[in-house]
Design goal:
heterodimer, A: ABC transporter involved in vitamin B12 uptake, BtuC, 14 helices, globular, B: about 325 residues, alpha/beta, Rossmann fold, 2 domains, 3-stranded antiparallel β-sheet, 13 helices, about 15% strand
Chain lengths: ~350, ~325
């Protein structure tokens, strides 16, 4: 073994150990966030009280609050965080653009537009709110893809088409607010994004898509790594670039649609989490995606808890907390890091 | 002796009336003369208006009812949704329109050369005010979100029409009916209530600055979120569902964007699909009410007595409120 290969070998070992340690820390973070969010709230219960409410009691206020208010809210927070962070990570990989996220490229706005149409134009169909948001997000992805298509889809065309479509949808939302100004109050919480009053019903709506999307993303992580190297290299490595890209866009929009339908237009998760995890574990999608899952789960639960506690018993929507964190982080990214072209 | 008794009696009457008068002083009216009135607008500044304006344009639909109640007439109003036209006074339904209240057609307004333009602070921009100022058109910016603020605005409108809420027949009818209902409710045991605005996307609780909650409070209800709302000073506050369950209200009032019975049934099913609600006394005793938008979401204006009566029947169903 030469000196150089010996150094490389130790670097690889060190890197693997470092990543293991990082995953342990992320796992502890997620678990810690879960227990903190279960513990904190308007009802001050001890750990013993929480344990009894979860596993021993089958009725009473403690049981109802822990089992039917805090726990489903945590579960939904985890799934929404996972969906948005994976969606953002995938988009950043296939578009090779650090600004790509479900919000920037219009997927969230598509879901938002249909949801807002239901809320203010057709409030009698309010029960179709979640499926409408889902359909809007998925439909928007299709429109963006078709708009960007020209003998195939280039990442830059995709992101530019996404930005244009997002602007168009944003204008439609503003127009609706102009024509129905007396109903604007009803959509404010949706536009900010929040987890208030999320129940097991919402968790049941989102988990199939979250599971499917997460599974596909994790199994396709290797292909994401190849796509991130550029189209020519990917083709030379035997990857069908167009098909793979289309598949990942579909997965990304599925994940974003599921999150938007349940939590509203929650911003920054799809941007902050993947970039933060790149700083911690690197850009290899085989470790980046699982890291995003762990970190986003913990972050969403902690931010939601902060929103519930900071002015309790009133609540700040988690979207506001995320924006307060996300904006400084975004500025840090702009000023601190050097990005490759 | 007779003179002495009379003067003592009059003095006592004046002294007794002072607190009432002080309470009833309208913060929106600063000074008035035979021809003009100086009033405080929403932004705290004062504006001088000529009384009895003939050509009045109203820039916010909800103010139309209040203006007509006060004895005024308008020559134009903003665009109104088809389903809300029936809520307008009959005389105002076919008036020319001057655009959406978020985006008034200033050219049309200025070309009509009105004596007065009444605007709402809800969405009145500085640009609108600048154009009216530079055109020499008198304007007033007002806003109300609850009955007490509505009454002050109504009184202001009465003063602009050279009267007052205490002499205007329509205003007197509104206030006396409301006061009668409140006095009757004051004798009842105070129910603990929460007023919720639900959109299908989340719920906010209303403080007693908001329309529905204030009506319930004036009818001797106890708003469970008042304590928390004190430090926040908002009308609608995203509130912890845990706290609602813990506080266990006797009555829950819902306002939503949808008005159809079928949609409300679905919404009710959606809300109460969470078993946590079953712990609440109001849910167990079937005292959850979805309120009509006409009276509680939008401004009730001259229909406030109807809104109060509706609320009284909800809070105290064992009493006869039809007299």
């Amino acid at each position: 073994m030469t000196v150089d290969s010996k150094n490389n070998f130790w670097n690889l070992r060190e890197r693997a150990s470092y990543r293991c340690a990082a995953f342990v820390v992320l796992g502890i973070f997620a678990v810690f966030a879960f227990f903190i969010s279960l513990r904190m709230g308007s009802l001050d219960l001890s750990w013993t009280g929480i344990f009894k409410a979860l596993f021993i009691e089958d009725s009473g206020i403690n049981r109802q609050i822990i089992w039917n208010i805090r726990l489903p809210r945590n579960v939904v927070a985890v799934m929404v965080g996972v969906c948005l962070s994976l969606s953002g990570a995938i988009l950043q990989g296939i578009m090779r653009n650090p600004l790509a996220s479900p919000n920037i490229i219009g997927v969230s706005a598509g879901g938002g537009l249909l949801a807002i149409i239901i809320m203010i134009v057709l409030p009698q169909y309010i029960v179709l709110l979640v499926p409408a948001a889902f359909a809007g997000a998925v439909g928007t992805t299709l429109v963006i893809y078709l708009a960007a298509w020209k003998h195939g889809v280039q990442p830059m065309r995709l992101i530019l088409a996404g930005v244009a479509v997002a602007s168009l949808l944003g204008a439609c939302i503003s127009a609706l607010m102009q024509f129905y100004p007396e109903r604007v109050a009803g959509i404010v919480s949706f536009m900010v994004g929040g987890l208030s009053a999320r129940t097991w019903r919402h968790a049941a709506m989102i988990w199939p898509y979250a599971l499917l999307g997460t599974g596909v993303a994790l199994t396709g992580a290797k292909r994401l790594n190849i796509l991130a190297l550029g189209d020519e290299i990917a083709v030379s490595l035997g990857v069908n670039v167009e098909l793979t890209r289309a598949a990942f866009i579909a997965v990304s929009s599925l994940l974003a649609a599921a999150a938007v339908s349940v939590a509203g237009l929650l911003g920054f998760v799809g941007l902050i989490v993947p970039h933060t995890m790149r700083l911690v574990v690197g850009s290899d999608y085989r470790v980046l995606l699982p890291a995003c899952i762990l970190f986003s789960s913990g972050l969403m639960m902690l931010c939601d808890t902060l929103g519930r506690m900071v002015i309790q018993p009133a609540e700040l929507p988690v979207g506001i907390i995320m924006a307060l964190l996300g904006a400084p982080f975004f500025l840090y990214l702009l000023r601190g890091k050097k990005h490759e072209n | 002796m007779k003179k002495l008794i009379k003067s003592v009696f009059c003095s006592l009457a004046v002294i007794a009336a002072l607190p009432i008068c002080a309470k009833e002083l309208n913060p929106l009216v600063i000074k008035e003369t035979a021809d003009t009135i100086v009033c405080r607008d929403f932004y705290g500044g004062s504006v001088t208006l000529h009384k009895n304006p003939e050509k009045v344009i109203i820039g916010y639909t909800s103010l139309v009812g209040a203006w007509y109640c006060a004895g005024g007439k308008a020559v134009a109003i903003p665009n109104t949704l088809e389903m809300n036209v029936s809520n307008l006074p009959k005389a105002a339904r076919t008036l020319p329109r001057v655009g959406n209240f978020l985006n008034l057609n200033m050219e049309k307004i200025v070309s009509m050369k009105p004596d007065l333009v009444i605007l709402s602070a809800f969405r009145c921009g500085q640009g609108t005010i600048d154009i009216l100022k530079s055109s020499g058109i008198e304007y007033i910016v007002v806003q109300y979100t609850n009955y007490q603020e509505f009454y002050n605005v109504l009184d202001l409108f009465c003063h602009i029409n050279d009267g007052s809420a205490r002499t205007n027949a329509a205003a007197v009818k509104i206030s006396s009916e409301v006061n009668k209902l409140c006095q009757k409710a004051a004798k009842q045991k105070s129910p603990r209530f929460i007023s919720i605005f639900y959109t299908g996307r989340g719920l906010s609780c209303e403080s007693s600055l908001a329309n529905t909650a204030q009506i319930a409070k004036m009818l001797n209800g106890y708003n469970l979120i008042d304590e928390a709302a004190d430090s926040i000073r908002g009308t609608r506050i995203p509130f912890s569902l845990e706290k609602i369950v813990m506080d266990n209200p006797d009555v829950i009032l819902f306002t939503t964007m949808c008005d159809s019975e079928a949609a409300r049934k679905e919404l009710k099913k959606q809300v109460f699909s969470n078993p946590a609600w079953q712990e609440i006394s109001a849910v167990r005793h079937n005292r959850v009410y979805f309120l009509p938008n006409r009276l509680f979401l939008y401004k009730a204006n001259e229909h406030y007595p109807e809104a109060f009566r509706y609320m009284a029947k909800i809070l105290y169903p064992w009493e006869n409120w039809n007299k």
